[in-house]
Amino acid sequence: MKITFLTTGGTIDKDYAPSAGTYNFTIAGPAVRKILKQVNPNFEFDIIPILKKDSLDMNNSDRQLIYDACTKVKGSKIIITHGSDTMSQTAQKIKDIKNKTIILVGSSRPEKFINSDASFNVGAAVGAINCLNKGVHIAMNGRIYKWSECYKQKDTGRFVCRSNS
Questions:
Q1: pTM above 0.90, yes or no
Q2: Which pLDDT score, from 0 to 100, does residue 165 have?
Q3: Dist CA 68 CA 18 (whole Å)
Q4: 22 DSSP β-pair partners
């Protein structure tokens, strides 16, 4: 099995530095590289950085870059690390890519934080990618969703099924 990880930034890759009494963030290197190194996985993988952006700063051109990167991947298994606020918009853009299983995954707290959910969410995505049908999915909060059947609740920050609204 081979998984291609496309990294786009988002909270999962954020790093915070204090500056004059406030905190500023930067998008650091791909968090998934550190996560995979820690677990010594028994599968092949590539990590391809695409963007270093907060997902709220992404635009249609950025989503086109992600689409193009997905179509260029030779394998059929892709995990995209992405900011959670606009995952659904990116999923909408890439939904028509055929013959690939694509999972968007992120975190509520940066991977660098001790109480981050990043490793948990990436692990869920890796575990699910062999079991899912082709198409676009979202892995967040211990669940795997078909992209069109979930949304992020603003008050809790969790992804939930549309049928639970």
A1: yes
A2: 47
A3: 36
A4: 19
Q: Give DSSP secondary structure letters for 20-38.
A: TTEEEEEE-S-HHHHHHHH
Domains of the chain: 2-164 (3.40.50.1170)
Within 10 Å of residue 61's Cβ, how many Cβ atoms? 7
Amino acid at 64: Q
Q: Smallest Cα–Cα separation from 87: which of 30, 141, 10, 164?
A: 10
Condensed to tens digits (0 to 9), the pLDDT of residues 104-162 reads 999 999 998 889 999 999 999 999 999 999 999 999 999 999 999 998 988 998 888 88
- CA separation for the pair 152, 5 (Å, rounded): 22
* Dihedrals phi, psi of 98, to nearest 5 degrees: -95, 155
